[in-house]
User: What shape does this take?
Amino acid sequence: MATLIKESDLIQSIADAVQFISYYHPSDYIQNLARAYEREQSPAAKDAIAQILTNSRMSALGKRPICQDTGVVNVFLKVGMSVRFDSQRSLQEICDEGVRQGYTNSDNPLRASVLDDPIFARKNTRDNTPCIVNVELVPGDKVEVGIAAKGGGSENKSRFAMLNPSESIVDWVLEQLPQMGAGWCPPGMLGIGVGGTAEKAMLMAKQSLMDEIDMFELIQRGPQNKLEEMRIEIYNRVNELGIGAQGLGGLTTVLDVKIHTFPTHAASKPVAMIPNCAATRHVDFVLDGSGPAILTPPSIDVWPDVEWAPDYNKSKPVNLDTLTAEEVASWKPGETLLLSGKMLTGRDAAHKRIQTMLAAGEKLPVDFTNRVIYYVGPVDPVGDEAVGPAGPTTATRMDGFTEMMLGQTGLISMVGKGERGPKAIEAIKKHNSAYLMAVGGAAYLVSKAIKTAKVVGFEDLGMEAIYEFDVQDMPVTVAVDSQGISVHQTGPAHWRQMIKDIPIVPA
Assistant: This one.
């Protein structure tokens, strides 16, 4: 007899799952990140991991998103051949309804990031639909469901190549990693798909990120086949690059490397690689017709005894309300600051509109003179919050606007995540400015430093509007100073040398 899966059960399960993964890291990620924290010798990387672990525990207890980018939802369905759905809707429509209900939950609203018409209008759908649905028909009478939320910062660093059959996968990975920068928020995982066709390889890479982190156990027992040998080799050689947490230089860049394979054409070797960030979010469950899934949270004991707090002995207080260009020019690369006062926000859409207005000679809605801009798209607040989780977005997306902002608006500094490219660094050096880096993966922690928030421009852009935040002791690192020195270049270079004298052991 066929198992009957009610439409309402699948919808409720998906809605519950997207909420669940927004504030609970998988236990395996927490445990392995804690190992990386204990082993880390780079002070900058250790501080970044401390912020991520503290943020993770805060999010679990507060049931608020780990990251402001609550991702595009991927739904992986393995449908038993004996299953029948009690619905007149398509699986896409059912899954979208689950995502819609999950993302618009008033107790924990999640940021809507999906834009309809990816080329021209790019209009926000406001409920994060549609999701990405993958269906496989398998033997059995149950439905296995995997839910993942993949943020744009890490997804944008995806790589694909059609290698010649004789070319080395390991060499290709090591060629790509440095080019990916730090916008994918390491330490995380690498998912690799090899074989099939182009689209099959990409799908396998994405699916592999749902696997449990087991590199520690794998190295402890030793590899049992060539694929496990390759996983260990890539893990070791990627970490030997010294990229480290947030790209600041350190011992751990990846916690694990996963590889899925499929038969392929004799002339082909498709290889896809997708990184997962510090906001690794996924959960699996099974529906058997008895009702919606019941999801079990990680035990609070899983989190290590790590609690990041501002350190006034190591970090320089900065008053944003009296900040001058001369003070910005005095900051040193790698210096940690605690920002207090009023800062503006803005990201892709706001910068594009500013560019259009300046070209037309129009007055901007806000004066950027001697101000600092934070690249962020926050989650909506709940309760007494000034703003929801508000971590930084990838700064390189604003590189093309940096000369305009520094040269035409009076802006004197910027805050984001990851490195800056040559074009932005040239503008920063030209205008004696500085770029400050906040930790990606610490969005809820950062939001606690924001005491008030109000929209001051481009309200129609939603989370991409210009806000004014009043912050207190917001932690940042000087990532590019006024001389154009970038810690995302100097840090990894230093730790590549240091690692030569440090045995590579699993995180």
Remarks:
- The chain has 15 helices and 19 strands.
